[in-house]
Amino acid sequence: MVVLGTAFVAATYGLVRLAYGLFLPDIQRDLGLDAATAGYLASGSSLIYCVAATCGFVLADRAPTALIGAAAVSACGGVWGMAASGTVGIFGACAVLSAAGAGFASPSLVSIIERTVDTADRGKAQSVVNAGTGPGLIGAGLVALALLPDWRGAWWLIGGFTATVAVLLVVSATGPATGSTRGRPARPSRRWLLRHLPAAGGAAALGAGSAAVWVYGRTYLVDVADMSWHAAVAAWILLGIGAAAVIATAPAMARLTATRAWMVGAGLMAGSIPILLLTPNPNAAIAIGTLVVGCIAFGWGFTAATSALIAWTVHIDPARAAAGTSLLFVALLLGQAIGSTVVGLLITSAGYSVAFLTAAALGALSVPFGSAGFGGAGARHPTATGAPIRGSSAAPPASPRRARTLPSEPPSAPTPMTSRRAWRSR
User: Fold this and answer.
1) What CA–CA distance (Å, rounded) separates 335 from 302?
2) Largest CB tally within 10 Å, which of 44, 82, 200, 394?
3) CB 254 within 8 Å of CB 358
4) Domains with residue ranges and CATH for the chain
């Protein structure tokens, strides 16, 4: 189940959703798609993701396998429609539709893992599944190297892989549940929402800043840095390597508070964007060095920051961590929707340098949200049991459904699953 869940995240996020920016230069050449229109489509994709994620939040506990089916239909239908499209209008509608797959997938996979994995292994399983974005980005780069400029063939292949994984996942998920699950928590209160405001604001700013690289990164490297398409695709693989590296750095990052980890990740992501602007350089060593450093730093920073969002909401209220994660990722994608449009318009009117520096500034605006004085700032990563965090200045409200910390557990000792669960990557 863990392997299939990881593969489905890799498909719906790394391959279907994020490969749009990787294939964009070839799509623009064949369909006559300008940068502003590409930005509108990316914004529409972010909005439809938010709609799907909201539906998933409501239905995940009751019908997770049905949501996997909805994810597969929207993702596969979208990419296959893009592959067969002959006009910008049809392509755009299918591109937007495909993004719903990731929105449906996330909450359904959380629910399936909770139902099918034993409690002792659940934190590790969730961490591994949600780290699928990094391998997905690497896979998208390898597909591009093998098939581009035939972006239509790439979409057909990606759709086939996604459909195959979805079928296997639904078949596996319909078996008997092996893990114990808690009852559904009460509906979040106004106080719960208020405590999430700093995290939601930071997530929106991070999403807006990240749109420059996710949507227009390869186009910039091809059109401005004058790189070969092989080099530009290799840069995409470097982004995936940076994202996947979050798994290796999770133990060290888990020793930070959730908000401190947020500031580190968001700050590094924002700082990496100007580094990429240094890539056009007559000195090959400098060009390659800035490309490698910028891409790996961006991939790691973005993924580490989004993982910190999960730890942040778990601290605020462990019993409603799934709801909090949905809320914060919706804010992140809404920010990307705004950022895609703004960056696209700036590229058309003022050029890539102005657009990317604006994106870096938007990303930098996300950092101070980590120092907010409420919402759980300063709390360390929570334990896998969902117990209140030790040393916290604002313990989560009591919940009759929340597991209690064993009396014999030493007050300062984290559980073995702490770092892995808190650092889920998307």
Assistant:
1) 13
2) 82
3) no
4) 2-178+190-384+416-422 (1.20.1250.20)
- Contact between residue 324 and residue 313 where contact means Cβ atoms under 8 Å apart: yes
Q: What are phi and psi of 67, to 5 degrees?
A: -70, -35
Instruction: Give the pLDDT score at 178.
Output: 54
State the angle between helix axes of 35-59 and 197-223 in degrees (0 to 180), rounded to the nearest 10: 140
Amino acid found at 362: L
Q: Tens of pLDDT along 114-135?
A: 778 776 665 566 667 767 888 8
- Which tens digits make up the pLDDT trace of 163-217? 999 999 999 877 555 554 455 555 678 888 899 999 999 999 999 999 999 889 9
Q: Which amino acid is at 54?
A: T
- Of the candidates 41, 57, 120, which has an alpha carbon nearest to the alpha carbon of residue 341? 41
Cβ(21)–Cβ(215) under 8 Å?
yes
- Report the chain's C-alpha Rg in angstroms: 20
Q: What is the tens place of the pLDDT at every residue in 179-189?
A: 544 555 556 78
Contacts (Cβ under 8 Å, ≥6 apart) of 390: 380, 411, 412
pTM of the shown model: 0.77
What is the rounded CA–CA span in Å between residue 208 and residue 3? Answer: 31
CB 189 within 8 A of CB 344: no
Q: Which two tokens stand for residue 384?
A: 């896998």
What pLDDT shows up at residue 120?
A: 65
Cα-Cα-Cα-Cα torsion 82, 86, 92, 94, nearest 10 degrees, comes to: -30
281: DSSP letter = -
Q: Rounded distance, CA 311 to CA 384, Å?
A: 11
> What six digits make up the tokens of 12?
């719906």
User: What's the pLDDT band for 111 if we cut at 50, 70, 90?
Assistant: confident
Identify the H or E element spanning 288.
helix 284-316
CA distances for 169 relative to 30, 98, 105, 329, angstroms: 35, 19, 11, 23
Residue 41 or residue 405, greater confidence: 41
- Using alpha carbons, select from 113, 13, 100, 132 the residue that is nearest to residue 65: 113
- Going by the DSSP 8-state scheme, the letter that residue 16 receives in this structure is I
Question: Is residue 296 within 8 Å of 303, Cβ to Cβ?
Answer: no
| Torsional sign, CA 292, 293, 298, 301 | positive
CA-based nearest residue to 306, from 159, 135, 424, 168:
424
